[in-house]
Amino acid sequence: MAELLTSEEIALQSSTLSGWTVEGAKLRTTRKFKDFIQAIEFVNKLVAPSESAGHHPDIEISYNQVKITLTTHDSGGLTQNDFHLAQIISQIS
């Protein structure tokens, strides 16, 4: 089980992520695209890095918007795994 980050560690790491917010024990971002097809293409690009990391985001799709939520469920909050995957996702267009 991954170790939970302290509130200080969360604040420090979240300050380096553009477009992400910390909401309780979750890290969230919303990406907007031209249309549904582009939104789905983006979601498909998340599969390989998520599988490689062994860490999977919660994904919500609403037409051209993709909401991504990261948390480490088995640890009950935010861990280094969440911030690592958020950095990878931030680089995907």
Detailed description of the structure:
The protein has 93 residues and is an alpha+beta fold. The chain has a single domain, classed as Gyrase A, domain 2, CATH 3.30.1360.20. 39% of the residues lie in helices and 23% in strands. It contains four helices and four strands, in the order H-E-E-H-H-E-E-H. It has helices spanning 7-14, 36-45, 47-53, 80-90; strands spanning 21-23, 26-32, 58-62, 65-70. It has a four-stranded antiparallel sheet with strand order 1-2-4-3, with helices on one face. The radius of gyration is 13 Å and the shape is globular.
List keywords for this structure.
93 residues; four-stranded antiparallel β-sheet; alpha+beta; Gyrase A, domain 2
Task: Give a quick rundown of the structure.
By secondary structure, the protein is an alpha+beta fold. The chain has helices at residues 7-14, 36-45, 47-53, 80-90, and strands spanning 21-23, 26-32, 58-62, 65-70.
The second-level CATH architecture is 2-Layer Sandwich
Q: What is the CATH domain class?
A: Alpha Beta
- How much helical structure, as a percent, in the residues? 25-40%
Large-scale geometry:
globular
Query: What low-confidence regions span 5 or more consecutive residues with pLDDT below 50?
Result: none
Q: Count the strands?
A: 4
The helix-strand sequence is: HEEHHEEH
Strand order, main sheet: write it out.
1-2-4-3
CATH topology description = Gyrase A, domain 2
Tally of distinct domains = 1
Full CATH superfamily name: Transcriptional coactivator/pterin dehydratase
Number of alpha- plus pi-helical segments: 4
Classify the beta-strand content into a percent band. 15-25%
Largest sheet: 4 strands, antiparallel
Alpha-carbon distance between the termini? 31 Å
- Rounded mean pLDDT is 97
User: Which class best fits the helix and strand makeup?
Assistant: alpha+beta
For the CA atoms, what is the radius of gyration?
13 Å
